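ok so i was messing around last nite and threw this chain in just to see what happens. nothing serious, just curious
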Amino acid sequence: MTDAFSPGRPSRAVILVVLAALLSGGCGRPDQVKQAAELLDKGLQAHVDGRFGEATQTYNDVLRLDPRNKLAFYNLGLIAQVVNRDNVAAENNYRLCLSIDPDYTPALYNLAILEEAGGDPKAAESLYRKVIAINSRDAKALWNLGLLLRRTNRTGEGDQMIARALQADPSVGTGASPPPSFRQSPSPATS
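result:
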C-alpha cells in the first residue's frame, strides 16, 4: 500500500516486509511467487494503460508476496521518476531493485540520470560506465556518457563515446543534435 499522497513510493509496511525478506534471504513460498508473477502482469498492463495509481498499488501487492521482485521495484521507480517527478522515491526504488540484481541495466541507467540531474556527475559517470561494461553497445548510455564527458571538459573521450553510440544505434541522437564541435570520424571505405 502506498501513501495516498505519494504514488510510486512504497509504504513503510512494504519496506519493512522487504527488509525482513532480504535479511532472512526469503523470497516467499512458490505459490506466493506465482501469484506475484500474475499480479506483476496486471500491474504492467495498468502501467502501460496509464493507470499509474492502480499499477503502483499492484506493484506494492507484488512486493508483499515476493519481496525480492526487482521488476516491481524498478517499475515503482519508473512511475516515481517519470509520472510523479519524485526523484527521492525513484532513487530508493532503483536502489532496492539493484540490491536484488546489481547488474540490472535499466535501473542503473535511470539511476545515472537521477544522479546527473541531482548534481553528481561523478556518480552518474560511474553508473553509465557500469551499464556500458555490462552491454558495450548500449547506445543510450554511450550517448549520455559522451554528453556528460563533454560537459565536464573531456571533449575527446566524450566524442568517442558519442561516435560509439551512433555506431551502435544511428537513431540514438534523433531529436538531439550532437554537440556543435563533434566530428564523427568517417568510416573506412569498403571495396
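not much to say yet. The first helix runs from residue 12 to 24.
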